Each structure stands twice: as C-alpha cells, then as structure tokens.
Amino acid sequence: MIVLTGKGVSKGMVRGPVHFFRRLAADIRKNPASDVQAECGRVKAAQIQAAAQLRELAEKARGKAGDETAALFETHALLAKDEIYTETIRNLLQEQRCCAEYAVQTAGEQVSAMMAAMDDEYLSARAADIRDVTRRILNILTGTADSDGVILSDVPVILAADDLSPSETLQLDKSKILGFITSEGSDNSHTAILARAMGIPAVCGLGRKLLPEYDGRNACIDGSSGKVYIDPDATILTEFEAQWADRQKLRETMEAMKGKEDVTLDGRKLTIFCNIGSPGDVAAVRDNNGSGIGLFRSEFLYLAANSCPSEEEQFRAYRDVAEAMDGKPVIIRTLDIGADKQATYLPLRKEENPALGMRAIRICLNRPEIFRTQLRALYRASAFGNVAIMFPMITSVWEVRECRRFCADIMAELEAEGIPYNKHTEIGIMIETPASVLIADALAKEVDFFSVGTNDLTQYTLACDRQANDLGRFFDPRHPAVLRALKMAADAAHAAGIRIGICGELGADPELVETFLAIGIDELSVSPAAVLPLRAKIRKTTAETCTLGLLKC
Q1: What whole-number distance in Å separates Cα of residue 164 and Cα of residue 148?
Q2: Which of 72, 259, 294, 515 has the lowest CB atom count within 10 Å?
Q3: Among 3.50.30.10, 3.40.50.300, 3.40.50.1820, 3.30.390.50, what is the CATH number of 2-23+149-238?
Q4: How confident is the model at residue 80 (pLDDT cuts 50, 70, 90)?
Q5: Are 82 and 137 a contacting pair, CB within 8 Å?
Q6: In 3D, which of 376, 363, 357, 313 has the Cα closest to residue 335?
C-alpha cells in the first residue's frame, strides 16, 4: 500500500480505479504568414467564438454547479479578449510575421509566465486562466475537438491530473467521476471550487508523489483528510467502509429534513432561503427544499449576454422563476456589476480601486435607461408570483429615495399602459458597507427588509480585498467587528418593524446558527446544498440559550 498526502479540498470518501487525464496537444509550428492582417482576423474570430463558448459554459455551470462556478467562465470570457493578451498576440504577428496559432500559443506562454511570477497570489493564480483560454482559442484555430481528455473507461474512476481547468472539469461526464486527485492546486484552485460545487471528493497538491504508474490501480481517497491510499490494504478498506457507512447515515438524516420547518426547539423561526443566478437554478432550490429565494443575482443575465438584455428577456427570466417558486418569496437583486464583475458591452472607466468605485446601484442611478428597463421587467414579473426587489451597495438615504422614485414612475407607467403588476411589491436593500450599518436606523424607515451581504461587509469593514486569496487569516468573516455590525443592523431593523436576513457565504456556516439567533437574524439565504444541514442545526437548537459570545474581542 502507498499513502499519499495532499490537501483535502472537497469532502467525501470514494474508492475505485485511478485514471490519468490526458490531453491531445496540437503540433504547432512557427509557420510564416503571407498575410498578417488575415492572421489577425483569424485570431479575432477565434477570440469571439471562444468568448461565446465560455458564456454558454457559464449558463451550463449555473445549473450544474451554481453561481460561483459560472463566474469563473464569465471571467474566462473576458480574458479571451483581454487587452494585454490581445496586444501581445498582435505584436508577435506583426514583428515575427508568423501564423495565428504560433502567436496565440507564444502569447499565452508569455502572459501566463508573467502572471505566475507576480508577488500577488491572486494575480499569479490567474496564470492558469490564461493557459485555459489559450488552449480554447488554439482548439478553435486548429479545429481540435472539445472532446480532448475524454474518459475512456467503462466504470467510474478517480481522475488524476496535474490540474484541471474549469472548462475541462465541467465538460467531464460526472457519472464517470468518483473523485479528483491532482498534483497541483490548492483549496482555492478551480479544481477545488468546482469539485465542491459538484459534490465530488477531491485531494489537491499531491506534487510529484502522484506518479503516472498509478494509472489503473485501485485507490481510496478522503477529501477531508487529504489522504490518498494506492492499493489499500484490508485495514484501510475496513476503516473506509465504516466511515462510508457513517456518512451515508448522515446523508439519510439530511434527506429526512425535507418538508420540516426552519424552527428551533423553543419555536423560534430562522427561515432558510436560497441564492440563485438563473432560472435554471430553481430546480436545485426545490430539490433541497428551500423556503424561497433570498437572492436572485440578476447580473448574471447581463454577464451571459453580448448586450444589455431587453425588458422582455428579463421579464421572461424573472417571471419563470416567480412561477416556478409557486408563491414562495423570490427576492431579486437589481444589477450588481463593477469591481470583479465586468460586462464588456458596458465599458467602465478603469479605476485604481474598483471595489470602491462605480458599481452596483451607482451604475443604475447614473444609467437610468438600464435601470428603468430592469425595473419594468421586475414589476411586470411581480404579477406572477411573490417577487420582491432589492437594491445593492446602498450607503445613503437619498439613494433609497431615488430608487423608490424610479419605482413609483415605473408603476405609474404600467398603470397607464394597463399592464398588470403587484402594487405592494416589497422593496429591500443590501447592508454591505459600514456606512449602511451606521445609518441602519434611518434606512430601515425607508424599506421593507434588510439583507446583509457579508462578503462585502467583511471586505469593507476589515479593509481586506475579498478577491485577494493571499490575505488568509486577515479576511475573517467571523471577526467581532463584522458580527457587531450584524447586531447593529438587526437591532435597527427590528426597531423599525422590518425583517433582516443574511445572503453572504457566512450564512451557510452551521457553527454560527446560535450566534445568528442571538443577534436576531430572521432569514438566511444560502446555496441550495447548504439548506438541509442548516435546517438540521436549527431544529436541534434552543434559541433562548444562544449567546453573543463571539461578538467579544
């Protein structure tokens, strides 16, 4: 038996044969180009096609693995036409008068090497993204099929690789995958993110210990401990089977939570909603018995399109979700782009600190034609279900009043046109900045509910870039300052007689349920997979005994 130790990045235990992922590499040579302009045209066409493919994969990812995964492909779609990357290709074509394939391959190597050498861990990790985008563009230029790396096996396997790109992982036949083991990667690598989203056990960072000679041999992997057992002995197999049985019982316990109320032992409700990014995600909400949708990220309708989606396109998407939820609450957040989410057809001025710049509600209030189109679609959809509208990145009372003025104008228009809508559609705002916390008492008088975006609230409260993976322990969503901000917002909400929820990642942590109850949180909105574990925790908790201990320094 051989024991390998890596980083457990996606929980679960599986056993089966190891199968090494193999890519077909095109033979690219430095052939001379007789017409440089024609080669530039070929590159541009391939970039456009690659971006379109990646946007399609983003939609596919939403249904299979959720919004975080979809965002990876949206980022890749932008990188396919990245200015520095494109400029490097163009310079190579003009200076070396080479073919498009050679220029793209060389540019990919140069740009990815430049990123990998950066001191910033987040930027250095983007080297893998450039390599993936380059591979896709080269496949288009060379006519290489998307079936590269297909798993030729009659039985499910543990897939081994150096690392896997998002597109490679998503296009694999999930029925053939038991788990992932990779020599590279970390807890924040794309393989790890996708494995967790798809519910597949994974161990990354095995390094040179993961040898090709293990191909075809039996293995057990533990995605919690990071252990990989090649040719496991009888003792390991016995332990493995016992742990597998325990985890199977846990899954059965979670299934038993379906149909149960989100209520504590002493009768306190803490309702569990779900976060979604497209109508295709509703199936997961229903499968996991979510009590409603606490956050529909409408920006993904914009990021997946080549131009601003029309009123009719948006209306259909919002209506479909409202109808599918059959009267359960559907809270739809208005357009929240900027910072890390960019739409190429809505060019924004380059900013030194984009997270502090023109984003979310600031764009909507500055681009009323975009805002009005979305609000008309939202109000029209409100006639088909329990729709509420939520505005992001609010920092001032005047912003809320301006948003409400837009809403009043839209309702008057629809009334005049004889188009049905719900006159009592609720209006809420996101609490995600220290400013909104400090004036929460005034904001609460203007709206029907609060929803706390803990990802951004943590970023702005702790002055930590949420995109910078190297900040590690400094980015702490459990920091007493963040939890105290939650308490301040909750107190202000309840004093004004409105409810407050959490829609950030922090809400999915079962260990914080008692703290949320003590703070006074009314709702949690999480990924569909987190609903049942949270419900199980809530149902065995007594609210009266919960304390604010974590708020102490």
Answers
A1: 12
A2: 259
A3: 3.50.30.10
A4: confident
A5: no
A6: 363
Region class of 533: left (phi > 0), else alpha (psi between -120 and 50), else beta:
alpha
Highest-pLDDT range among 190-199, 292-301, 486-495, 530-539: 486-495
Architecture of domain 265-551: Alpha-Beta Barrel (3.20)
| Predicted local distance difference test score (pLDDT) of residue 470 | 58
Residue 366: pLDDT over 90: yes
Residue 121 has pLDDT above 60, yes or no: no
Report the catalytic residues: 190, 503
All structural domains of the chain with their residue ranges: 2-23+149-238, 36-142, 265-551
CA 158 – CA 168 distance, rounded (Å):
15
Q: Is the dihedral of CA 93, 95, 96, 102 positive or negative?
A: negative
Confidence at 150, pLDDT banded by 50, 70, 90: low
- Give whichever of 203-217, 347-361, 468-482 has the largest mean pLDDT: 203-217
Structure-token pair, residue 239: 């332990």
User: For the chain, what is the total number of helices (H) and then of strands (E)?
Assistant: 21, 16
Give the span between the Cα atoms of 433 and 254, in whole angstroms. 35
Band (455; pLDDT cuts 50, 70, 90): confident
Residue 187 to residue 202: CA distance in whole angstroms: 10
Burial track 388-423 (b if 16+ CB lie within 10 A, e otherwise): bbbbbbbbeeebbebbeebbeebbeebeeeeeebbe
Coil/strand/helix, residue 30: coil
Residues 6+ apart with CB under 8 A from 505: 454, 455, 477
**Selection from 187-191, 236-240, 301-305 with the highest mean pLDDT:** 236-240
8 A C-beta contact, residue 36 and residue 218: no
- CATH architecture for the domain at 36-142: Orthogonal Bundle (1.10)
Sheet with strand 218-222: strands edge to edge: 2-5, 227-230, 218-222, 13-20, 157-161, 177-182, 202-204, 7-10
> Are the C-beta atoms of 310 and 375 separated by less than 8 Å?
no
Tokens of 295: 């956050």
What pLDDT score does 430 carry? 97
Region 516-529: mean pLDDT is 94
Give the pLDDT of residue 448.
Answer: 98
How far from the centroid of its chain's Cα atoms is residue 306's Cα?
Answer: 20
Q: How far is CA 45 from the centre of its chain?
A: 29
